[in-house]
Design brief:
heterodimer, A: alpha/beta, 4-stranded antiparallel sheet, 40% helix, 22% strand, globular, B: alpha+beta, 13 helices, 12 strands, 56% helix, 15% strand, His_kinase_dom (chain B)
Amino acid sequence: MKSRVLVVDDDTALAEMIGIVLRGEGLEPIFCTDGDGALPMARTHQPDLILLDVMLPGKDGVQVCREIRAESGVPIIMLTAKSDTVDVVLGLESGADDYISKPFKPKELVARVKARLRRTEDPGPERLQVGDIDVDVTGHTVTRAGEKIALTPLEFDLLVELARKPWQVFTREVLLERVWGYRHSADTRLVNVHVQRLRSKIERDPENPEIVLTVRGVGYKAGTPQ
Amino acid sequence: MPGLSSLGSSLAGTLRRKAAKVRLVLIRLARRATHAFRASLRLRIMTSALVMGVLAVAALGLYLSTSVRDGMVERRLEAIDSESAALTANAEEQFQSSVVMDEQQAQQLMSSVAARILQSASTVEAVFLVHPTGTQPQVSDVIIPDSMGTQQRELLTDELRRENSELREREATNEQVMQFTEVRDPVRDEVTPGVVVGTSVQIPQAGPYEIYYVYSLQPEQEILTFMHRVLGTGAAFVLLLIGLITAMVSRQTVAPVTRAAAVAERLADGHLDERLPGATGIDEMSTLSRSFNAMADSLQQQIQQMEELSKAQRQFVSDVSHELRTPLTTIRMAGDVIHAARDQLDPAASRSAELLSDQVERFEILLADLLEISRFDAGAAVLDAEQQDLGDVVTSVVQMAQPLAENKAVPISVDLQRPGNSVADFDPRRIERIVRNLVVNAIEHAEGRPVEVTVAHDAHAVAVVVRDYGVGMTVQEVEHVFDRFWRADPARTRTTGGTGLGLAIAHEDARLHAGRLEAWGRPGRGASFRLTLPRRAGITLNSSPVPLVPDSHEPAVTTDQIPVVHPPTGPQPTNIPDLEIH
């Protein structure tokens, strides 16, 4: 089955171009040209991924992202013409999984889209433990003492990546490559923001993390199972 | 005795040390006082007012006491002069009217006359009748009262007696000699100022005798002492008053100045709404307040204008960015799609697709650089600093530049000196950009000769020098090398690409870190670029850990050597399972 990608962009030329590229990769694009229509479209068509422009008529991309994220964990990639720190961080904090700065190459777009769509299912059931958290990789659920914690697919992938090798310290660059699919070193703020978001959901005290630990000057590692 | 001498020398040493310590303490105290004096306007005003006050009061007191004393003593001396003259006339009369047979009777007469004088004149302390020739006290001398006899030598000085004898020789018998002296009261053992008045009298059967009266100036002394006490009390009171007045006045004048200084400081700290109170009056202080506030208003207005301008420019940059980038993205993607399908096109269209793709990329880089520069100009560039090792950044940049270096057959070497020690707070994205720019530039201008990259550090700074031995630059070219769109040789550099903004951005990036980017070059000898970064924010750079101008103009490695990169030694973070967790 073809993966469905919702492209939210007011620039019809760019949207059409993106559609051409995505179709070339065997994906099924659907289009929305303003911010107000994005949420209803996402509800009715249940896309597998959303490409979201930041500057939109009607609601802006950050707002749309926040609304979609409130009811769905669908992967969201922001298309941003601004690479200024504040804008990028604002986009990521509103719940976007990744962002691509305009102008971008078709290959780059495809790589990011595929990285988000990729669901590498391991054969056989796999259960992991980090701190007092149980991760059911196959069932795609995270529980603490039997209580389910809702994570977006990206946050889940990030946690699984760390939890599979609790003895290893991951640099931000390595995480970017494994979780986001970047082949070159890119913006490590992505990792910082998502680690913060993950912590806010799974840590008892996000100020004093026990699940995702910071190794100063190096990166992150998973906490020891309890 | 060696023991004793050593004891002495050790004692001397102790004393010297003690003296040195005391001197140190004194110097420190003096310094502190000087500092307090220089730091406080009020203290200075009060000190000078008090010093002037003391001088004025002292002068006044001196004048008053001197003139009162002189006036008083003068009048007293006049009185003493006429009284003693009268006493002498009286005594002379008594001597002449008495009948004296021999010297013994004369002696008795002298005693009785002197006693009577002492009785009749209460202010006379003593009467001396002295034989004129004797320098030593004579048996025939009469001294009333007897107790003053011991003071004869002190009271009747040689000078006094000489003057008296001169009077006698001139036969000026109605004149008197006078001298100030000190009279000691033998009973109470008190010394009081006094006056000795003398002249001569004719004594029957005994010839001329010198007669002296001793007067005490005790009452005058007492009045003067009393007056001094009153004056002293008055002076102290006046000085106290001066001190109080000065303190009050200086408070009134200095306080607004202090307040103005405090407000100015708040303004300088960015609290632009701060104003001086009391601007409604008509005095000087109110004028100061008004002018100050007017200045602050104008300052605030200017700053706000600048802020608005800067905001407008940032907004413009942001808008341009968005407006340009969206169509550029479409062009880019379309170009890439066409480029990917160029095999199906005819040769002309295929080549066009290639050119389109390349030039779109160039356009993209140029746009990115332009936006970066305008961010610097708008003051919107943000430093995203973290602790990093400059050596790591340099190593990764050189590794990435390796394909280019091999393509141009340029050997490139990295000297990390002591790896892992070049840790500083910097924005890795910006610093990587600077280093990449320098390294790529060096490779492009090296003309096949080696490029040397050296990382160095000291306590305050880390630095990297990128040196090539290629075409080099003239001194004029070095001056312009960081200018925007400046190219050393337009014809040549155009082919190798680059926007002409790379070094300008690198320079701005370095400045954002409070660091320095400097260039050196000589035609034919190559060029050298040095980036120096402070280890932490707040460190001011005065020097760099490594020289910009190289000692040698010959490469350290021979050109035929294979490219060398010293990898950073030490553990690779991802491979170490039991790393210490902070």
